[in-house]
Amino acid sequence: MTRFYSKRDLHFQLFENQNCLELTQLPYFADHSEVTFKLVLDSAEQIAEKSLRPLLTEMDRNEPQLIDGKIRIHPGMKAIIRQFGEDGWINALFPYEEGGQQLPWTIHITAGFIFQAANYSASVFPFLTTGASNLIRTFGSKDLIEKFTPNLFSGLWQGTMALTEPDAGSSLSDISTTAFTTEKSGVFKIKGQKIYISAGDHDACENIIHLMLARIQGAPAGTKGISLFVVPKIRISGESNDVLTQGIYHKMGYKGAPIAHLMIGSNDDCEGYLVGEANQGLKYMFQMMNEARLGVGMNAVGIASAAYQASLAYAKERPQGRKVGEKNLSQAQVPIIEHADVKRMLLFQKSAVEGSLALLIYCAILSDKIAHEENEVRKNEMELLLDLLTPIAKSYPSEMGVQSTSAAVQVLGGAGYTTDFPVEQYYREARIHPIHEGTTGIHGLDLLGRKVLIQEGLGWKLFEKEIESTIDNSKELSDLDSIRQTFELQLKKFNHAAAQILFKMNQGPEKFLADATLFLEATGIVCIGWMWLKQAVSSQKALNTKESEQDFYFGKIETARYFMEYELPKINGLIERFHSNTYPTIAMRKEWF
Amino acid sequence: MTRFYSKRDLHFQLFENQNCLELTQLPYFADHSEVTFKLVLDSAEQIAEKSLRPLLTEMDRNEPQLIDGKIRIHPGMKAIIRQFGEDGWINALFPYEEGGQQLPWTIHITAGFIFQAANYSASVFPFLTTGASNLIRTFGSKDLIEKFTPNLFSGLWQGTMALTEPDAGSSLSDISTTAFTTEKSGVFKIKGQKIYISAGDHDACENIIHLMLARIQGAPAGTKGISLFVVPKIRISGESNDVLTQGIYHKMGYKGAPIAHLMIGSNDDCEGYLVGEANQGLKYMFQMMNEARLGVGMNAVGIASAAYQASLAYAKERPQGRKVGEKNLSQAQVPIIEHADVKRMLLFQKSAVEGSLALLIYCAILSDKIAHEENEVRKNEMELLLDLLTPIAKSYPSEMGVQSTSAAVQVLGGAGYTTDFPVEQYYREARIHPIHEGTTGIHGLDLLGRKVLIQEGLGWKLFEKEIESTIDNSKELSDLDSIRQTFELQLKKFNHAAAQILFKMNQGPEKFLADATLFLEATGIVCIGWMWLKQAVSSQKALNTKESEQDFYFGKIETARYFMEYELPKINGLIERFHSNTYPTIAMRKEWF
Asked: Which of A394, A409, B99, B128 would disulfide-bridge A416, Cβ 3.0–4.6 Å?
């Protein structure tokens, strides 16, 4: 079986490039160690290889179907979901007293990367349940926790996040699903519809528990009037709860996971249980949103990793053509990995996958630290930094996942376009990530319109400081001089341009935000450049202190060089926009198209 | 029905932005006029709308299957192929005395654009037959012409181009299919296998006529020993010709067209008929190759056009969110086309589609002129220019087709990822074009390693001269000053960098060609920038002389501005490579990955 991720790289990211063992200094994680972390990851690899991976193609070719009002999914999923429950994956993050393992989220999301690389569709079921149960246990009453979480933790029930509606996709403030008070406190009658609900209905679990946003009748307009409810498909009493599966979406990829269109309370008989306080729903949801968004980034890297490994294996095996300048046709053909342009496409993938992984693990460690930090100033700073990095860590891997899987297809050529190889599936699956959990455009607005400005730009300053610190670390390593200098040169241009775009605030929000997506793109490239400098530093230090695994570390440094030479310069095309005062995307009128 | 192309734009490209009526001055085309050209295009639109378009989704969802050694395709294709034959599309280009219409290739390929935009898979069958029969009638004996072309022209038989083999994809010189002489002159026994043969077998035609490359036993190694043969599936006598369909490729998209794996002469009983002289096969094939490559560029634009139109229609209808800065939530949501970032994605698509179309029509007119030019100096110059532009006109539309259809998916958001809308199909179909008829990497090598250098760079100088001439034309139009100045500024940087890359020849072919793909990309962007300046000039002149259709022309000019502001600056990221002397794609070793 072709491998779908690099275990060596994952260990490098966690234990060498970044020190996730820092987390074991925190009391909550004190029982953990490098040994327990690696055990968890090895066990993830086993499930991935034995249970998830074998269903990759089958699940793509046998899509879920809506039959008699119920969605049928691949029959193999039932055992997999149950195994996730029994092995303790769903509640691994939670305290011992809740049956959890007090595992850092960093290790949980990294295990997720392994699952996602093996079979993205299969991997989403347990992670959705973890997200939903986390909302209940964090904000719900003791009663809700006791009633709903045990069967979610065991994998008997499925959890979902039910946000989107036909008229409220990117614009969540327009949610219109309504909750009507009843005589019972905390119990509401819900009415409305929800679309694009992942795992919103299926036959591998006995019940589906929706964490649903709705508006209590009479609540204020907009985001301030949205509340969060637990809405089960079947009530605890065993009665049906008037949640009907109206339709299933057939999709370009990611086909193994059913995406449902739900009608809620069509017969005025759907009960929803308020989570926490009224009108706080979006706030609660957003406290989970950072992790959900980093999760999407990780999904994207998982898929890109599998595609990279598949194209790398092919490039090493497939003979075609001869070295440039070789005129002797009686010479055997060389494997295509010998061609510079093929290496370029492989280096691009390696740089996108490992650079994104470095950033996501950086963010995950930050998130674990924040959850257990008691010093308010330090906590605030870390939160600002993570808030700033989140749209980048969601969007860069998602956008590059599309390009990276495309490069994998290109390495295989005609073969890559056929269903004989898995890369075409990865290409189709990767395309969802720039869309869900906030489109790239929405994250651009979030970064430039909100995150950069908060607390007088403190988050941005912390970001710059972190980059400077990595640059400083690299200065003692003269082998990295050219890599560092190239990075510094581009960084200077970027900082100048970023300052420029802030001046545009004076011209009103439309002009200021017109190129927010490009600003996100440029910031993402710089951010991954920083991650590659960091990886080069860690690798050069290893080369200077030990003699083993030179190939691995040289590969890292050469990929860092590739990034500085090929990817980082792309900011120059974007930067020119920030200096320009011409706005064709505003001037263009709809009747001119 | 959502429209799939803009007729207004097509007429602009042919009759206003470029003057295809020039061709009617040539004796061969003398009977034609604007009226006949428009009649041809209208008739193409009718077939596209009535016959091709209705099968778009069906053909995607009911792939061809190999059953009992024969490929079965969508039953609707038989009537369509016959209609193409009866209406004279297959031999439209050829002289009256051959039953043709002496139609310029420019109009034929433009009609093709309409077919491809309506249903790419369905459109390929007749165009493959035109290509194959053109080889026979140009290089074949009278006997071959009489035996094979009439039934090809009528659509009764299918023509193919059979080049690729398991060990000879990008490296055509490694073809190993062998032709053995027989007692009969011109008749050979063929043995070998061919893969990825489009329309290589199907049940909508009574016979399949392969134009096949093979090596006569004992011929020189490499490209100098390749000959061209007519290899029918069924002999003229009615006997089977030992061409077996070994397999069918299932693909990510482009599913309606069957791609076959053929075994030739497994029972030593396959006859092939030599076309022209021995060992000249690749030369013959390459005389058709320019047109085939421009054809692929056109396919890509066709698909991108359909995706653009679908996303444009959606963006005008779909309400979501409010204008930036609008805080009043009781205001109705606005159609997403009101958002600058959505307009950016639409402008990108419009600029890619119409810019590519302009270039392809420019090339097609050049091709028609070359075919009928008698002055050797002028002919040589036009050939050099077309040879230079061909890798660009194949690759830019192909690469941008992928990005442009991706932007269409993004405009639709979650809906775009579902099979409820056609954009996901366009996205899958577009991905083939950077692969077939030479991968983008191969065209990069062709441009930088060959086309730029031929006749001491004369082709390149002619290219620069053409661009200068458009710049000069724009100078009299002061409304275009800022567009022109931006273009000139970037062009100057590009020319400087292009000169730089030529110096690298001194460092040997590996370094010189390491970034050939990036050179192709940058040249493509500049070339389309030139096409947008040209369109802006034509549009501004129209605005200055007439009062109607202002929306159309303003839209053109604003899209030109978009291109200069958003797309053209991308060369800056590429240019930095040409100035660099660091080569990570060469330095990286395969064991470091």
From this structure: A409
